User: Fold these one by one.
Assistant:
Number 1:
Amino acid sequence: MEREAYRPQEKSGRKRCIIFGVVAGLILIVVVAVVLGLALRPNTDTLKATFIARCKEFKGYDCEKLWGAFEQAYVGRDPCAVPPEAYDPFIAAADFKPACNRLMFWSKTKDVVHDFTEKKRDCFLTVEDTVLGSVLNGLTWCGKEGSTETFTTDCPGWRDCVNNTVGSFWNRVSAAFADAACGDVTAMLNGDIDTPFNPTSIFATIEVKRFDSSKVKSLTVVLVTKKSAVTNCTNASLEDLQRELKQGITYNCKDVTEVQLQECSSNPERPCGACW
Ligand SMILES: *[C@@H]1O[C@H](CO)[C@@H](O)[C@H](O)[C@H]1NC(C)=O
Ligand SMILES: *[C@@H]1O[C@H](CO)[C@@H](O)[C@H](O)[C@H]1NC(C)=O
Ligand SMILES: *[C@@H]1O[C@H](CO)[C@@H](O)[C@H](O)[C@H]1NC(C)=O
């Protein structure tokens, strides 16, 4: 009797154990599915949220419309078949107005130039400081044939193909930025490297070629060095740069140390252009 009384209990204990196991297993499956789903989910929402938030920092833009113009460049396309022209509608929607005497171009000086323009915002603008470049600075995106989603991982880059989604964007945006140049234009180049005017850079292959001599009066190269300069304004690559400029555009070059720049940008009283 005791045994009989015990067995059903033991049975129900085992049953409870099985039910618990099944429930735990189901919960585990659901958790894994949710985690995987989140990880593998296309990132349209994340990229769009960042884009819109950054766009809203600029006045006078319909940010949803700008996103729409941007997105149509690559959504549903092979990410290696997005040429720069695909972003023409985005460029048109951004409608970046010429900014005389304030445009700042750069090559291999990313940190120092942005540190500088951030403090001297009223004086100089890099493309990343404008709505054109700011909305996607530092981000990666691409589409896929037959999909309406935006992906932010496993997107091809320059190593994979010429007409890649992200590279074409920066080429197109840089061209638009150079088209807006007028008056006195500045370019911050790196004096700590052997060839400050690198013929394969965006500055050399796109921007310099688009400076319009009917609008651009002069180009001033600010050649920045940290401590021991590798090169200076006499470097032959800068002669190549002068040859690239259309007739009528005056060329200047100034050797400047990073310390001089920092000292100048931390002093808000200093007028624009007085840092070199
Ligand atoms: C990239 O796109 C352009 C169109 O802008 C086209 O002429 C060119 O052939 C493409 N290049 C490659 C390698 O697909
Ligand atoms: C510039 O660099 C060259 C060597 O590349 C050197 O001979 C020259 O003295 C330097 N000029 C200045 C002003 O530092
Ligand atoms: C200066 O420019 C030339 C030609 O672009 C380059 O080959 C050379 O190594 C550069 N640098 C120095 C420090 O001379």
Number 2:
Amino acid sequence: MRQFKCLSGSPPRVVAGSHRPLPLLLLPLLLAGVCIDCYKPVIIVHGIFDGPKQFRNLSKFIKEAHPGTEVTVIDLYDNLASLQPLWKQVPDFRKASMAIMQKAPDGVHLLCFSQGGLLCRALLSTTPNHNVHTFISLSSPLAGQYGDTDCLQKVFHNVLKKNVHYLCYNKLGQKVSICDYWNDPHYRPSYLQHNIFLPLLNGERAHRDMKAWRENFLRIKKLVLIGGPDDGVITPWQSSHFGFYDSNESVVEMQNQEFYGNDTFGLKTLDARGDVLMCLHSGVKHTTWHSNFTVFTSCMEKWLT
Ligand SMILES: *[C@@H]1O[C@H](CO)[C@@H](O)[C@H](O)[C@H]1NC(C)=O
Ligand SMILES: *[C@@H]1O[C@H](CO)[C@@H](O)[C@H](O)[C@H]1NC(C)=O
Ligand SMILES: *[C@@H]1O[C@H](CO)[C@@H](O)[C@H](O)[C@H]1NC(C)=O
Ligand SMILES: *[C@@H]1O[C@H](CO)[C@@H](O)[C@H](O)[C@H]1NC(C)=O
């Protein structure tokens, strides 16, 4: 794993149509509409209680840094609809992304915020023919969520985090998206048995598609994990970097997680390949990650080529 903090700017790119004289050889290709040095399309998946509107600034950052990039924020399950069960949302996000991937022979980038990061993981693991190059996870509870936050209060009025497991770990609860990644470290057996989403994605509960899901996930070339201690929503914030609480609520880092050690879904392989990049920023609140220009230049720009 490599840590990077302040890699601002990316090497200048020459885009077809700029002033550098083109070798004659390339002319026929250009005339045939072949793109010589294009940026890959970027697909953005929003988080809970938001939608495309919240990603206007980020889309602008991308297009200004890399002119000509096709940026699509998938307009599905916006706002309150984001509470729908994740396994219901995944096929629809898959369909919308595949339409973009099929028109991009060189692949696409997937940039997913918060709950969207989990949707994207599920999409990557269950789609054999995806062509996602870089997967950027922007402050996403990748190892689960366990914390009293405003966001939680909107859904479970006045229920304390220690009691949420009663609501979440059953058939009805699993129909609410948050419950699909609710990870109560004090009710591990219940989480493993009744949570129908995260334990499968993490391979914490064995299932017959594990090997295939792992292979699908490993088609990505780079995984960029962005998060930080002042997030205020993702709890523990280290979940954005695949860390999580043990039964004493002490945070166990990614490399010491069992799903990492057993390489159940490909994370260890990806890391050994040098393709897991962690980006950490203090001073960024959850809902401002995607409009912070410093975060964009230091954690995203370089990878979205
Ligand atoms: C976009 O940036 C402007 C200026 O920095 C800010 O006022 C606005 O709240 C941002 N919009 C979003 C959706 O974050
Ligand atoms: C990891 O492997 C050990 C030993 O084979 C096994 O006991 C454990 O359940 C596995 N855990 C996960 C999350 O796969
Ligand atoms: C939790 O804390 C207790 C007491 O400090 C200790 O004995 C135990 O080993 C800890 N458990 C874990 C999983 O670290
Ligand atoms: C943007 O991110 C930087 C960290 O790189 C942080 O210091 C700053 O406070 C953030 N700005 C806002 C408006 O969140």
Number 3:
Amino acid sequence: MSIEDQGSLFDSDPEVAKILADELNRQRTTLQLIASENFTSPAVMAATASVLTNKYAEGYPGRRYYGGNVFADAVEDLARERVKQLFGAEHANVQPHAGASANLAVFLGVAQAGDTILAMRLDQGGHLTHGSPVSITGKTYRFVSYGVTPAKEDGSGERIDLDLVRDLALRERPRIIVAGTTAYTRIIDPVPFREIADEVGALFMFDAAHPAGLIAGGEHPNPVGVADIVTFTTHKTLRGPRGGAILCNQEFAKAIDAAVFPGLQGGPLEHVIAAKAVAFAEAMRPSFKDYASRVVTNAAALADALASEGFRLVAGGTENHQIIVDLRTFDADLTGKAAQDALDRAGITCNRNQIPDDPRSPFVTSGLRLGTPAETTANMGVVEMATIGSLIGRVLRDHENERVLSAVREEVRVLCSTFDPYPDAIVS
Ligand SMILES: *Cc1c(COP(=O)(O)O)cnc(C)c1O
């Protein structure tokens, strides 16, 4: 049977086609408030679905192990040049399959097993790859962790404790100091980290997985040129395909490239790299600056709406695309897990999250993390954020009442119908 004979996905595999259609429907009819998610453009998706998925391209442009890589080289060179221009970087590696592989490649490239790495505590906003005992990072390197300052009544607490970063750096003399978080609502200024790294002779890595799009859009300070190495994901605020990338000075280029391939990965996903190139070009457009600014404005509006519903916000609010809600003052018995489940049934998708010094386990938690990147892409604005805040309040005040949940589910469906991320439904 030739490829043409196989017809569309629906004709050749209705079972998978049906699942994809259902997922498209879910994304279009429920609210996507997971802070690490976004809706990619049809152009990004077209590149992801391209014939480059067929190509093996181990190595780097001009230095591949297999033949036939003229166009793989062209697309990877284009992606590298675009991302260097976007962030003002000397060197780029666009091959990491994900943010986790980008981080691991950096550690592999510039540290030895057993070296000390200073990073953010996982239960205060750090990522699994910042030394969790269940991650290969935590098993291979000796992580020491800093956290945030205590909560304060006026919301000025729960900021990265830079005094603690410096004290730990002086005491532990880490090989690498890592800045960057997965659940933190304030701007991270790379400069004080640079100063501490210089004082103790450490390398400084900035993990910009979350704010990459806000940095590209000019909303947050650019760590490139301040940090020695910057890693990020391409699928969060940057709105590209699922993947990772690494930027660094020439000094580390060889070590980083060797760590990604052959150190950690095999053949690169050139179809995803093509989609990264598309996303980097999209992020260079003036409309992306506007997008990044609306993401932040919307998060502030959602934070205000949630505060007026009676929720305590970790760190007193937000300066980025995230909001972290402490549920304990709203309802001492309501766990993050129960809140996430109730909101899910009401068509509001978000994730439970630990709050600083959470008395509950990471599986249960006392908090929720919400984000605005996806629904801002779908064109929602501050009016819709106020509506969403009150819908969340309604659900969580009455989270075991199925009538309330289905009434909100219907309102969500109506709201989403005017803010359809894929009005032409050309993707599945
Ligand atoms: C999301 C995230 C990662 C990992 O990205 P994956 O693509 O899920 O592997 C790494 N670091 C931080 C801070 C993140 O938020």
